[in-house]
């Protein structure tokens, strides 16, 4: 019986490994079927960001939230529900970067309805980009690929790095709100962060590099106000996070008046929140990272050293190359390819 179980585990591991390796994305995927796709997407991005430059951060975040959900090769059951657990392993229906964050649900049970995604912005804009792409190349380009291109251009048009986006993803048809438990919360400590990143094949370097996406965009007070008023559960003005730099904490308190502030927006990188640069690392190194997860980067020797190196601002090209590499790695988090999934006509609904 033990031998049989061991054999089944070995077969399971082999099957999972084969599945994890099946994604074959490449930058020339649409060279014949839709050679204008990147131009079409960039034209819409330039138009949108010229009118609303603050949209760049949310669009980058949307791709991040799409890739972290519905993907894991072998992972712990508590991080991804709706799984089958056998022999101490968890296998899941692996569909990362599949556009599932864009799907609507009549009964409000889709990913976009979950608490981590309720502050996402730009869904209407994604639909406009999709309509423009459909006009140029009907039934050809997936919403998942459009999200990847939008995220790249959001960074580049914010004076950040440019990278070649591997393409060929297809769209999934499942979107479940509870599966957003796989997203790294802003309240995470370093241990939780590394576990959740490892679940999508990202390591500590990817963690510290991709966290710097916080250099553009804003956040609602409720994502970090517990650091100001309720750090240990006392719910009073003296119950503060001691790891947060005092002057920065007072500045945040002047903007976020209480734990009940659900509307105020705060710049994640004060002073340059519309520009993709290394100022994020300067802030974190001074204990002025907005979230628990930002401050957590100082609790590990490797990530702390990376933060301190790039806080100097002397290695911009190196950081830009690292960010591009980590974005490509994240975007390759086992997407649907080949004959899997579909190419949605509209990004918010599956085809009928």
Automatic annotation (TrEMBL):
Residues annotated for Ca(2+) 1 binding in this entry: 66, 69, 96, 98, 100, 111
GO MF entries: heme binding; lactoperoxidase activity; metal ion binding; peroxidase activity
Enzyme Commission number, as recorded: 1.11.1.7
Function description: Removal of H(2)O(2), oxidation of toxic reductants, biosynthesis and degradation of lignin, suberization, auxin catabolism, response to environmental stresses such as wounding, pathogen attack and oxidative stress. These functions might be dependent on each isozyme/isoform in each plant tissue.
Chain sites annotated for binding Ca(2+) 2: 215, 269, 277
Protein's recorded name: Peroxidase
Subcellular location: Secreted
Native source organism of the sequence: Triticum aestivum
Residues engaged in binding heme b: 214
Recorded name of the encoding gene: LOC123166288
Chemical reaction(s) catalysed: 2 a phenolic donor + H2O2 = 2 a phenolic radical donor + 2 H2O
Lineage summary: Eukaryota, Viridiplantae, Streptophyta, Embryophyta, Tracheophyta
Keyword annotations from UniProtKB, A to Z: Calcium, Disulfide bond, Glycoprotein, Heme, Hydrogen peroxide, Iron, Metal-binding, Oxidoreductase, Peroxidase, Pyrrolidone carboxylic acid, Secreted, Signal
